Amino acid sequence: MKLLTDLDAIRTLTQGRLDNRRISGASGESISFRSVMVCGGTGCTSSDSNKIIAALEQEVAGRGIQTQVEIVRTGCFGLCELGPVVIVYPEGIFYSRVEVKDIPALVEQHLVNGKPYDKKIYEKTRQGDELLNFEETDFYKKQVRIALHNCGVIDPEVIDEYIASDGYRALAQVLTTMSAEQVIDTVKRSGLRGRGGGGFLTGLKWEFAAQQNKPQKYVICNADEGDPGAFMDRSILEGNPHSVIEAMAIAGYAIGANQGFIYVRAEYPIAVQRFSKALDQAREYGLLGDDIFGTGFAFNIEVRLGAGAFVCGEETALIHSIEGHRGMPTPKPPFPAVEGLWGQPTIINNVETLANIGQIILNGAEWYAAIGTEKSKGTKVFALGGKVVNTGLVEVPMGITLREVIFEIGGGIPGGKKFKAVQTGGPSGGCLTEEHLDCTIDFDTLTSLGSMMGSGGMIIMDEDTCMVDVARFYLDFTRDESCGKCTPCRIGTKRLLEMLDKVTSGKGTLEDLEHMEQLSLQIKNASLCALGQTAPNPVLSTLKYFREEYLAHITDSKCPAGVCKALISYEIDAELCKGCSLCARKCPSDAISGKVKEPYVIDKAACIKCGVCYDVCKFKAVAIV
């Protein structure tokens, strides 16, 4: 049990540093040590947070305050639209959209003189002359972080920090004090359901695999996050990779497996790098490999990279890809828990599902089951995107309403626009309306409304969105991503898309609407896997809730939102036009002509309807007709 003793020693040595990363509310002048947390997630990294870190390190070293300041590259804080994000503890001062040129003043004012750098403070933390702790803002105060519990708190590339935040305690507890049956019973009683979209009870899946009397079994982590706009799994792997490793080992012990695989898309280079590094660290510490904690239990994990095929999110297609075959689904049963990877019992859980396991073991099944609703326990991570003020990542308890997420946490619709719809569940989800805003977010409610939980994408749309075009966009995606194995999906989605193209081009008929509904139901009922079975959801939900928009396209040859190019044109209001010539200079087809300081005109025959003139006009003289 020497490993247990070693882990306790690591916790003791590292705990003080982590304790400092807590909001104390102490006055700036009395603080002797600060932690500067810089988001190192993909979003902020793409906004040059690495340069922010380098500039901070250089500035801190130049002022000789290295012993008073630690600079930590951490995982996602959630408010991705505000990146690069920097948070200074223990005050919890939240800085947004930080630039390299801000660093000298930030270091001088805050880290040296103890006064917050006013220029880059997140505006929502201001309350009169006072600064709120960022956790008290509308974006954070209703969140409950379980799957994301270490993201933004620890350096994901330092295993000691994960251990100091109770990391690998759950694995130690499982291996030294619990039987496999007790582990499965705990997960079952927690009510945890799969967060990858299916919503199947996790403990029951583990139980099925455990009951198989086979010498070889496998654990697979599905990190093939393919939904447009979804980045929940990526953020967990980037910010807390050891939580997934620990959970996979626990799952292996529970079902009697000694080998795990994580299937992650190659388009996630930061996630792959951090997870691979975490694997090396876990092996070095004896937390993976043979005889873990001296119990005789052996478990290892290998990384498999996916090429980005959306269909490989389906478990049998994913299995075939790992085996080296083309990623295509097969009929079920048999289910993977009975006959999976290389014909052996296999459990497949997605990243977010696994990220809950350690916390369930440590805090108990009853603790987790007390969060959420009767049939949907715990929390759910959502990626908020589209026409919403606070785009980013949130984790909320099941049972919260769509209104709370969109208008309180999300901050509502920007620009004073009116809310129109929200799509949950990615390209396979449905579009819900204003009348659904007070509905609870849980597996069964969303399904009953014609949408789905999915893996956690949540796209918000405003009054300028054409719902027919939205349905066409998502169906175009699923048509492209169909593996082509079954006829209903391969041909049905193509025919359905053709009918949507007719409608958006003003050539649709009322009979097309009837045919679209019939074909959608046939695709749902006859497709082999969930890709085809859910592909028509955007079409069916928009036909149900926004039928008047379809009718406007067909009967009036009009796109109410002014989006479908075939049904709109651009005109310049002579009374509003100031003759600045900006529209003419920006027009890519030279369709606008006129004299400076006189009204300009658009040649509709030459106009390609790109909308550039509409976007650049400062006087709102260009109108969509």
UniProtKB/TrEMBL annotation:
Q: Which InterPro entries match?
A: 4Fe4S_Fe-S-bd, 4Fe4S_Fe_S_CS, NADH-UbQ_OxRdtase_51kDa_CS, Nuo51_FMN-bd, Nuo51_FMN-bd_sf, Nuop51_4Fe4S-bd, Nuop51_4Fe4S-bd_sf, Thioredoxin-like_sf
Q: Which superkingdom? A: Bacteria
Question: Would I find Iron among this entry's keywords?
Answer: yes
Record's PROSITE patterns?
A: 4FE4S_FER_1, 4FE4S_FER_2, COMPLEX1_51K_2
The record's section on CDD domains has:
TRX_Fd_family
Matching SMART domains: NADH_4Fe-4S
What GO MF terms are annotated? Answer: 4 iron, 4 sulfur cluster binding; FMN binding; metal ion binding; NADH dehydrogenase (ubiquinone) activity
Query: Per UniProt, which keywords does this protein have?
Result: 4Fe-4S, Iron, Iron-sulfur, Metal-binding
Q: Name one Pfam family in it.
A: Complex1_51K
In this chain the 4Fe-4S ferredoxin-type domain maps to: 568-597, 598-625
UniProt xrefs under PANTHER family: NADH-QUINONE OXIDOREDUCTASE SUBUNIT F
The record's family statement is:
Belongs to the complex I 51 kDa subunit family.
Return the protein name: NAD(P)-dependent iron-only hydrogenase diaphorase component flavoprotein
Organism (species): Paenibacillus typhae
